[in-house]
């Protein structure tokens, strides 16, 4: 037996004005789950604690709660001392019990042809992973799009795609999904990351539905424009000034000895819209011994097409990009756009290794910058945090320059084609970011993705900077101090 | 004198709803019944959990038995089931089960169920214990979940009024006839539903045991509710102990390790590394019937050849990793969560209370012995005899769920009235809990331990009598509701006590070893086929055991 202190959110709408926390000291056995801690509270201390459970083995989806902020199944998650247990972010009925019915009732149900003929084995294999949903609604509880716009949500999209795949269903699920908000998903991946059944809804359902929608001519006009532009120019955004690649040579040597050589995949946003940020990054790389090769024939990675389901031109883009680096025998390709990085890592099969700039800099180590007297907050780019699993590395870099105040990691609204396709939703999400930024009291906002930086810039009065720009400012300050001292 | 009125003492007078068919329980049987009944008139489905999430159907992993291939036959399925059930089954019900299981799986397929298929687009089947043909249809190891997902989708299209998190407390009667039920809704308010016919589909009750596979709802409510309403129950002593329950982590002990693990080729070994099944059933080995495998494991454990956590090993490490990943994904995932990679190391298992073979006596039309009351699924008795074959219960839910829904639907409309006094009596019963003293969880814990120790796999009259004494004592304790939200819990505890006493009394009545029921204190000269006994039966008015005159 072992003892644990746990904090549990309590709320009885019949009696309490607002939720409050209660701390309990319980005794459980080795290997106990969160559910067993709740049983212990209920059985030994306070029988009025309400929580839902049924199967006790991860099969029914009754018991999802948040433990230290993260949605988990109480029956499967190992209990930890000092944990905080809260209900999912859904309407609370009592204590840890939330209202699951509206979202579950909103799921489409099959309208059968009446034939019992089974789908083929291939079809079954496609449907099966989507079928393992246990309706716990962890995904719904974290979906940022559902907060600001009318969207049926991740598991509803999963269900629509499952039905679209099934020859026994008679309805047009693609058109239905579009009307339920198919194009409002920002590809933030939050739903997938919390899903206890690891159902990759954005990639395996939403993007697939979007490509079916494309075949039906239902792609949003703004997304069609982007695709047209990629086809015609190789880029997904227009240029507003001389591009990054026009301003640099093909090989950039570092200031000191060479620690590593990498190919640089620039990406449309840094090349066309934010070239100065890319130039800042180059300066930081030079200072830290990284030799950079920039094949000029590289084009858009295709992410804007994949996320919006327009796949016709994709193979051409992939081939051109892979060739550009492979011909030069480059074994490591550097990305500094989170979206490009995630796309190259997951949607490509590359003969080279792909590394995000935060990985590269922390791997080879950086010259210490000077500290700046600023308070910063960091916005986690979805495609870096969830897309590439990179959370701590940018923080390691940032805290070498400034003090960091955390805010919750939530999508800013710029991804998944939402900024172009559903601008009012993108703005509403960025507005929520602004509020969070303000709560931190930070002087500046740091991020590591051009889409996020560009988008958040429009919605906050604080400066928004890339991690590398911040490092560069640290170096400039260091140089300035050094110059002062030598004078 | 100062009188303290707890804030909840005053119940608001109960709402009364009205319908043609009331179905209690939203597992496989209840939902199937509701879908069928909705074709005949207004149907209400209540359950104490969320529909689709509650009950044991969602948890069923291994599969659904149905004769689908030319090489197989219903006759063989019938014989396997009767033999597995130690010939205590009702042959007529078994005949219906095996004949209709294929049609009912076809319904599910028509409604979109995604079972595993072969390369020729036929439903795939795997071998299960005690069957001479691999006839267990499956969806990986989440078969029950697949069925529930399909049924709930169908239900959504059927126009049934679904009331979630309503706990049925008792049936309401007008004279001899059941005319609906009274329950507590999700806010713990009293609720009455008048119905022309009522279907009990509340599932099983092995949570009366310390170690059990059942979901939170498997507390035997239906047995107790039916008993109190005057229905006759049969073979309540027939409790199936599944051979392979998890032993670690301790708080999750009893969690089912599906028979599909052995179906896919898993082998059992004791701590000495011996494949001990060769001593107990050399022919069928690991795929012997559950009663035999459970006793084998229990014996190995009792005789000290057990693992550190008190179980035996169940090993699939010799199987290809891909087979494990595809056919046993839930098992793999659950064990990984608990720190064991079953592709690399063996599982540790021990028997766990799993299934109630006994239950309300039903006719082929699912009529109980009380007019107006129907039963289907695990709460009904007679189909599985003294031991259920793996894969037959899911089939049972569909075959008899449909039959119950149909019979209830076809019953005449508008026949009974609710007696207000019955509702007042419920209110009085509930208010008393506020003055109670012992928390229901404390009583439940004592009950579970007593049942595991005294009415488990091996039984004697002495132990059973002692257990009955404990149950009687526990039943006399004043149970306490700390708040309104605890009222249902208190009532459920009383149901557990009633169900437990039915099990123990049944076990005392049956003075023979048969199927899952082993009386160590009885020496017998007969085998199941020549047994002089038939069903044991218990109701408010009579208790006993049928004797069979053998030709
Ligand atoms: C872990 C596990 C695995 C299994 N695997 C298999 C298998 O592979 N193959 C097989 O054939 N069988 C299997 N079984 C057995 C089979 O799943 C059950 O016998 C069957 O599903 C029971 O179905 P049911 O509809 O009768 O009851 P359940 O599915 O248990 O549903 C009971 C319903 O009644 C409700 N209820 C209960 N009491 C009340 C009340 N007082 N008021 C309102 N509602 C109430 C519950 O909320 C629930 O909705 C398994 C059982 C378990 C526990
Ligand atoms: S990817 Fe993000 S926006 Fe899209 S459905 Fe999932 S959580 Fe919602
Ligand atoms: S998709 Fe995953 S997270 Fe969402 S409801 Fe289903 S199981 Fe839960
Ligand atoms: S209780 Fe069923 S998933 Fe946790």
Spell out the key features of this protein:
heterodimer; A: 487 residues; alpha/beta; Ubiquitin-like (UB roll); Fumarate Reductase Iron-sulfur Protein, Chain B, domain 2; Rossmann fold; 4 domains; five-stranded mixed sheet; 23 helices; B: 551 residues; FAD/NAD(P)-binding domain; Flavocytochrome C3, Chain A, domain 1; Methane Monooxygenase Hydroxylase, Chain G, domain 1; seven-stranded mixed sheet; four-stranded antiparallel sheet; 15 helices; 18% strand; disordered N terminus; binds flavin-adenine dinucleotide; binds iron/sulfur cluster; binds FE2/S2 (inorganic) cluster
Structural description of this entry:
The complex is a heterodimer of chains A (487) and B (551). Chain A has 23 helices and 16 strands. Chain A is an alpha/beta fold and 487 residues long. Chain A folds into four domains: 98 residues, Beta-grasp domain (Ubiquitin-like (UB roll)); 113 residues, Fumarate Reductase Iron-sulfur Protein, Chain B, domain 2 (Orthogonal Bundle); 128 residues, Rossmann fold (3-Layer(aba) Sandwich); 112 residues, 3-Layer(aba) Sandwich (Rossmann fold). Chain A has a five-stranded mixed sheet with strand order 2-1-5-3-4. A five-stranded mixed sheet of chain A has the order 8-10-9-11-12. In chain A, strands 14-13-15-16 form a four-stranded parallel sheet, with helices on both faces. In chain A, β6 and β7 form a beta hairpin. In chain A, α6 crosses α9 and α13 packs across α23. The longest helix of chain A has 20 residues. Chain A is globular. The model of chain A has no long low-confidence stretch (mean pLDDT 96). With 551 residues, chain B is an alpha/beta fold. Chain B has three domains: 280 residues, FAD/NAD(P)-binding domain, CATH 3.50.50; 107 residues, Succinate dehydrogenase/fumarate reductase flavoprotein, catalytic domain (Flavocytochrome C3, Chain A, domain 1, Alpha-Beta Complex), CATH 3.90.700.10; 103 residues, Methane Monooxygenase Hydroxylase, Chain G, domain 1, CATH 1.20.58. Chain B is built from 15 helices and 20 strands. In chain B, the strands form five sheets. In chain B, strands 1, 2, 6, 7, 8, 9 and 16 form a seven-stranded mixed sheet that branches. Chain B has a four-stranded antiparallel sheet with strand order 15-10-19-20, covered by helices on one side. A four-stranded antiparallel sheet of chain B has the order 11-14-13-12, with helices on one face. In chain B, β19 and β20 form a beta hairpin. In chain B, α1 runs parallel beside α11, α13 packs antiparallel against α14 and α13 runs parallel beside α15. The longest helix of chain B is centred in the last third of the chain and has 23 residues. The termini of chain B are far apart. The N terminus of chain B is likely disordered. The interface between A and B is large, with 58 and 63 residues. The site of flavin-adenine dinucleotide has 43 residues of chain B, from α1, α4, β7 and α11.
